[in-house]
Amino acid sequence: MAVEPVIALQQLVKTFQIRDSLFRSHPLNAVDNVDLDVHTGEVLGLLGRNGAGKTTLIKMMAGLLRPDGGTGRVLGYDVYRDHKKIRASVSLVAPTADVGTDNNLTVRQNLEFWAVVYDLDRQLRDQRIDELLTFLNLKSYEDHWPISISAGMRQRLAIARSLLVHNPILFLDEPTVKLDAAGAHAVREFIRKINREFGITIILTTHFIFEAERLCDRVAIMDEGKIMSCDSVANLRRHLQRYDSSVIQCGEVPESLRREAIRHLGALPQVASCSFQGERAEAAQFEISADPLESVLFDALKTLRAHDIDIHAVDTNQPSLEDIFLDTVNSKGAS
Ligand SMILES: Nc1ncnc2c1ncn2[C@@H]1O[C@H](COP(=O)(O)OP(=O)(O)OP(=O)(O)O)[C@@H](O)[C@H]1O
Ligand SMILES: [Mg+2]
User: Fold this and answer.
1) Which ligand is nearest to the CA of 225?
2) What is the Å distance from ligand 2's center to 55 Cα?
């Protein structure tokens, strides 16, 4: 039996009235007919340029914003009728999350206050607070006033507050935006831990593409309110024909041999393209791209050696998620 997705959106729309410089009102579809299923326990990344609609989409999924069209369910609750139930069942860390921090309470007291609000069991409360303070490198600041700690530490405190309760869905809108490298690393490790150990479904937005690549099972690329592509990074690569490639540097290759070698390389299964560059002997190189590359690289080298071609060096390149992202947003309709 198929497992119900924890989030199922069909043709979801959010329209804002925006004013231009002459104060004329125009409708803007911040989220434009979005279809999206999110499955239990997955980490889904939302990537997109500024204004692509990521935060608006998250707010609708978290029960903070009412959609203007389409249908959607989050944990089985309807996004129109049950927004209060949705809000009570999900956690959200917004980029402005430290708004809820009370400057008259210490770091620890802030967490204690919210643990009471969230009705956490007394014993679990202390244990969870200690765990979060340690994990987010805030333990030595637990008795400090929030006003006296840095913006990055305040962001960590906000994240800790949102994680006091292990709700089944966690939305993280730019979770590492203000953090230094060590803080961002700690938060990423924590995201991985709560996803693996507690099976929490995580939807995150980030402008750090490597972060999405490292953390996410699937990535949805948004542009102008639409989801252009949504898949695992490996499948997105395949879909956009962004194959792994290898540059094989070699010694001098006579013209006749070059054509023969290209023909044989091109005939290898899984090879998507094959070319030769370099008129000068010292810069001669073959480039092949294949899916998957590992399965043909050995045969490609054997083929070149069978033609008595000297191999000097072999480099392999894997297209990054950044290449895929730029391909997608620069060629509309690439999904
Ligand atoms: N309350 C609002 N009123 C009017 N327009 C809004 C409102 N909220 C968002 N928008 C507009 O909707 C579009 C999508 O905004 P959104 O904040 O969802 O983008 P985003 O992908 O999260 O961008 P960023 O990467 O900058 O955070 C933008 O054009 C934005 O100006
Ligand atoms: Mg945003």
Assistant:
1) 1
2) 4
